[in-house]
Amino acid sequence: MILIRGLYKSFENEGKEMEVLKDVNLVIEDGDIFGIIGPSGAGKSTLIRCLNLLEKPNKGEIIVDGVNITSLNGKKLRDLRKNMGMIFQHFNLLQNSTVYKNIAFPLEISGYSKDFIDKRVMELLELVDLKDKKDAYPSMLSGGQKQRVAIARALALNPKYILSDEATSALDPLTTRSILGLLKSLNKKYGLTIILITHEMEVVKEICNKVAFINDGRIIEWGNTYDLLNFPKSAEVKQFIKESSLRIDKEGLLKNVS
Amino acid sequence: MLAESLSLIFSALLETLYMVLFSTLFAIIFGFPMGIVLVLTQKGGLLENLHLNKALNSIINTARSIPFIILIIILFPLSRIIVGTSIGSTAAIVPLSIAASPFVARIIETSLNEVDKRIIEAAVSLGANTPQIVFKVMLKEALPSLISGLTLTIINILGYSAMAGAIGGGGLGDLAIRYGYQRFRTDILIVTVIILILFVEVVQRAGNRWSRRFDKR
Question: What are the CB-based long-range contacts (under 8 Å, 24+) for A184-193?
Answer without folding.
Answer: A184/A33, A186/A151, A186/A155, A186/A162, A187/A31, A187/A33, A191/A30, A191/A31, A192/A31, A192/A159, A192/A160, A192/A161, A192/A162, A193/A2, A193/A28, A193/A29, A193/A30, A193/A31, A193/A32, A193/A33, A193/A34, A193/A160, A193/A161, A193/A162
